[in-house]
Amino acid sequence: MLRTLNLAQRTMKLPKLFASLLPLCLSAPATRLSVPSGPYNVGFTQHIFNHTTPNDPTPGPGNIFLTSIYYPTRSTPLPNTSVPYFDPTSAVIWGDVFNILASDLMSLETTLQWQAPLLSEEEDIEKVKSWPTLVFSPGGGMNAGYFTSLLSDIASRGYTVLSLDHPGEAPYLQLPYGNPGVVGWDIYMPYTDSLIVEMYEYRRAEMLALLGPDGFPALVELYGAYFNTQEFGAFGHSIGAATATGAMDRLDSIVAGFNIDGGLFGDSVNASMIGRPYFMTMNPNHFASDPDTWIPFTERYANESKKEGGWLDWTTVEGSAHLAFSDISLWVELLPKIENATEKVNLGNVTGTRMDEILKKYVRSFWEWVSCGQYDEKLLDGEEEAWPEVVFNAKIRSNEHGTEV
């Protein structure tokens, strides 16, 4: 078994890996992602689970996956001790794609505290225990850490948030606790339809393993933590959204799902939500690039809701593009670009900070309604003046009078 986390640790102590990166982060003026909106600060730790992927199509080892855990803490961040956003290898790879110097990417600073103390007040603990633990799967070929702004914001509201990385899929994945990083597919890897289905299947298997009795629940029991291991929420970006949907189809303990700009692949196309709340948001190009999954999925959900009850929102963020639903749009907005470089990726015409605000607002409003009934009617029931970019394509509500679509 590879070296693992230490949730019981009560003092801030950066592992050798992170400590060695801090000087690099300080070599350029730090650029901090937006401060999380919740009442808590955010702790962070990681765990490497042993799990075999039969005939793994990636260059990775095929016998592990990495889980990052974001959780609320009352610990106050100390100067220059936040978890680094980038490792040097990944900064070079991704900087080349977006015309940003690796040194500037290395200047990105998070508010995450490595293995910060858990909550101690009973009221805080009861909140975390009663709200579902949320599990996130990133877009294809992307590190889950490139959604740090969103994931840390949710954790600051009182949630335990898990994210998944499959070593060998992203161009490079730095592993914790002194384990070597894993070189994966080239960043311009062409994905065939059959390969996408393979990716979906191993990701779904890993999410199910993580939420199964020998995964996260066993880890929580081992360390005596108070995290919820009975109810989960699943969400993801791109193929990660299909992963969440497919896992939701198989696991009744997943009480709700959130699809961030993701088509459906493999058997997730026919997933049954059995009336559980489900939110879908997308960029406008999905109407042309993915007409065969979202509309049938919505229609089937509506038919199921006539019997099972249900709640679904389907929205478009006008002016957005696929990768703008990640931190990447923040990198591009906040950091200097290499002069006279040719744009290689379209991020739409909504600014990074605005996309960040939109996504956080809708994601946290959805989960807070699922968790504690705090329902924002303006936001979740129709187009809102404050967020004109968000357009509703479909809304499904079940009540005693039947299903409203």
From TrEMBL:
Q: What is its EC number?
A: 3.1.1.47
Please list which residues make up the signal peptide: 1-27
Q: Does the keyword Lipid metabolism apply?
A: yes
Catalytic class of the enzyme: hydrolase
Q: Which keywords label this protein?
A: Hydrolase, Lipid degradation, Lipid metabolism, Signal
Query: Which InterPro entries does this chain map to?
Result: AB_hydrolase_fold
Which PANTHER family does UniProt cross-reference here?
PLATELET-ACTIVATING FACTOR ACETYLHYDROLASE
Protein name (record): 1-alkyl-2-acetylglycerophosphocholine esterase
Organism of origin is Paraconiothyrium brasiliense
